[in-house]
Write a structure and sequence with these properties.
single chain, 117 residues, mainly beta, seven-stranded mixed β-sheet, 0% helix, globular
């Protein structure tokens, strides 16, 4: 059983910053690719950023240069530093851990980020 627990969401003004954290618990190793997805009201869930266990990253074009993903392999945790936030970044942000070779895919419950003045 694997549990992903997100924290760090909240209300921030446009141009502000937030840092999201996700801690993994249970039968999970640092071989997983970990990352963040988001879902805005009325929209489909979309990739924000992912990072493999070797440090390779992938970012959505809409967040490149503003968001930075990082991870702590010892603690099996992933973080998302979000800067220069825009109203269109408003969404529920979900933590994800996946290991494609084993067809394993886990999700957190999500944390709400609201960017508004």
């Amino acid at each position: 059983q694997v549990q992903l627990v997100e924290s760090g969401g909240g209300l921030v003004q446009p141009g502000g910053s937030l840092r999201l954290s996700c801690a993994a618990f249970g039968s999970i190793s640092n071989f997983y690719t970990m990352g963040w997805y988001r879902q805005a009201p009325g929209s489909q869930r979309e990739l924000v950023a992912t990072m493999t266990n070797t440090g390779a990253t992938n970012y959505a074009n809409s967040v490149k240069g503003r968001y930075t993903i990082s991870r702590d392999n010892a603690k099996i945790a992933v973080f998302l530093q979000m800067n220069s936030l825009k109203p269109e970044d408003t969404a529920v942000y979900y933590c994800n851990a996946q290991r494609a070779l084993l067809n394993l895919d886990y999700w957190g419950k999500g944390t709400l980020v609201t960017v508004s003045s």
